[in-house]
Amino acid sequence: MGINHCRNKKFNNLLVKTLPIGALLILSFVRVHYNCLRKEVAQNCLEPKESVFIDRTRFPGNYIGKFRDSSAKLVRNYIPSPHSELLIGTVMGADELSKVAKFKEALKISGTIHVVVVSGFNISLIFGFVTNILGTKHKLRGLILAQSTTAIYSMLTGFQPPVIRALVMGSLVSWIKYSNKKIDAFRALLVTALIMIILWPYFLFSVSFQLSFLATLGLVVFGNYTTDFFKKLFKKESFIVEDLSTTISAQVFVLPIVSYYFGRISMISFLVNPLVLWTIPICTILGFIFLILGSVSSMLATICSIFIYPFLDIFVRLVTFFATFNFSSTNFSASIKTLVIYYLFTLLAWYLLKRRKGKIYDNK
User: Fold this and answer.
1) Where are the domains of the chain?
2) Does the pTM exceed 0.85?
């Protein structure tokens, strides 16, 4: 299931963790890692005594790895650090934050580190962009093209668990919508998780899969309630209202698991996320344009970087500023028992809210 042992003279009995379909990608993204993701990898390894990162570009068939590396190099040539690491993470899903330790710590403290990875948001953005271009006249063609585009993008970013979750769930929901049937997002999410766990059982122990699933669950369960609340509170719709409701809905389910794995909770994530999230769609779209045009002409790359930089800078400055406060985060490590009790009560609260809302509609 994507876990192999590398045995030769140079690498003696080291565990190699590859993609679930690594053979299909011809040795793409072959990674040996243990220390950096101890809790995640420990579920699938036999305590290797050494950790080695293999240079992907040395494999002749690894065109995807070479493409990712050349894209990252292009970004670094025109955009300074840590802005370049931010863009590389949001567009390509490559984790280069270890090169900017202070900025990475600021992301953790402010509760915004989830932004610097490819997630379901990227898939939704690309899917919506393709379908909107083709419009409603070519609904089936747009659906097929959008799914093909997102599948290719998922492959380029390394088929990370959050991306696979978004790809599978998006495919289910889009085909249900195309069939003019009623969509139950909660069931669609559960079916998606079940499919992923059956195909790749070790995903169950993946921190990124758990975070992606719980964040989406929060949006599905509490998204409508928080949106309605903030619309009434601010008495108007805006991107701040949308980002605030999205942040709170996701954090309700994500914070406990973050506390369990990382032993820290951000006290300002509810404030910082709505202030910076609006920059991510802009940076992602401009980032795609930059990679396409930048590979053609250095002048076009320079022009694109001028447009992207201000939005990246807003994100970096806000995150860095709020991370300086002493009360920004607190150390707290939740136990398994605490997690079980918390999630049971949270789901019970959702059930009661849903039941109450149903009664209100019945009375009307």
Assistant:
1) 1-61, 114-363
2) no
